[in-house]
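User: Design a sequence. Structure:
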């Protein structure tokens, strides 16, 4: 919220990403920015995707700088929490006049499952 309050809307997504990284550091949170992840389809590697942030190894944060969030952006955030096998995600849109954010959950997440890399 501080980033949006300070900058307002109208900047490119990367500007908000850099500012949020500063705020996450100030808050003492561990995070990885633009973490690349392989995507597989029936055992075939079909590409890679980068999440804007993985915070505290548990939360996917996806940023947008759009006039308004649409269902496709929410679907993307949901796909990320499943693909990265994280319990929760946060979709944040800095592009509107008021900050927009949506919390998303991974319905397939099981904390008892061992990680398979």
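Assistant: Done.
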């Amino acid at each position: 919220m501080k980033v949006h309050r300070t900058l307002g809307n109208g900047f490119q997504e990367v500007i908000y990403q850099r500012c949020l990284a500063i705020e996450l550091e100030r808050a003492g949170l561990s995070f990885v920015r633009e973490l690349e992840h392989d995507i597989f389809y029936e055992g075939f590697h079909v590409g890679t995707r980068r999440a804007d942030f993985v915070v505290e190894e548990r939360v996917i944060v996806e940023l947008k700088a759009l006039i308004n969030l649409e269902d496709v952006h929410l679907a993307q955030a949901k796909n990320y929490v499943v693909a990265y096998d994280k319990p929760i995600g946060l979709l944040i849109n800095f592009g509107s006049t008021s900050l927009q954010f949506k919390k998303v959950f991974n319905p397939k997440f099981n904390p008892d499952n061992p990680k398979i890399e």
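The longest strand covers residues 44-55. The chain has three helices and five strands.
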